[in-house]
């Protein structure tokens, strides 16, 4: 058998240190092809002589195409400019890299939501119906415990805000199921983007949408007769925003566990309805019988509702505020940690 010789191509790539890959040529020789970050600097994939370069592999699908600067770098996840801004999604490590990744994911989903304003409007339908059709009945009853100053709206509106967070943030998992089905999550998983950023970017967008809806709901409440101190309203919005962040994280966890709407929807309804009834959203649980009040104390959302009502009364030093703040922080930390763990598990 004849002895073959080889050629070495010293063609360095553009983006990184060179490495050597042995590729058999068409005439039986081995071509040692030097390969940089973009795979090489040649032109064809299978041309005799061994250039592995700027075609489909070099700067096409792998180098700067679908993955390098196409799908993730400058694309929506693939091509328009939502995730990347001009560079890589996961181009850096540490806290700064996570913050940058979070901002890029956040902006992508904000743009997506702004293209679908109908969802923002319809998300207000149920809380507005409670506010307009049920609130006036309570004002006729009068003397609702926890209202303070005889203003029944101070007890009712904070509960409706928590209801908005519970249902509005609870249903965001449907969007993740759609992304799982369409392959968006799969494409993001192959990037070096932080898994914490994949979660935070989405939930921060969801929280922003909920805060906008809450402000509109508050404006309607003021028109109907709500009177509360400004800083109390601000504190109530902070509680609602943090609660929405934690609920959205848990919704994504459930979505990744079920992965289909037929399983996610009944599970979500089974969980949210008892939480709404036991949290004192409509009326304070202090008005409930002793046994029901005792059961509701095992519901963390009850403490958030009580804290929001205390804030609307201007009672910032009450035990309800302190308990609500502590429970809210624990909810946020636990739900974000669980959601991040689930996103990382999806990558394995």
UniProtKB/TrEMBL annotation:
PROSITE patterns: ABC_TM2. The chain crosses the membrane at residues 118-135, 155-178, 199-224, 230-255, 267-292, 320-339. It is found in: Cell membrane; Membrane. Pfam families: ABC2_membrane (PF01061). GO terms for cellular component: ATP-binding cassette (ABC) transporter complex. The keyword Acetylation does not apply. It is a multi-pass membrane protein. Coiled coil: none annotated. Residues 75-94 have a biased composition (Gly residues). One of its GO terms (molecular function) is ABC-type transporter activity. Residues 1-94 are annotated as: Disordered. Residues 27-46, 53-74 have a biased composition (Basic and acidic residues). The keyword Transport applies. GO terms for biological process: response to antibiotic. Residues 118-346 form the ABC transmembrane type-2 domain. Keywords: Antibiotic resistance, Cell membrane, Membrane, Transmembrane, Transmembrane helix, Transport. InterPro entries: ABC2_TM, ABC2_TM_bact-type, ABC_2_transport, Nod_factor_ABC_transporter. Belongs to the ABC-2 integral membrane protein family. This is Transport permease protein. It comes from Actinomadura logoneensis.
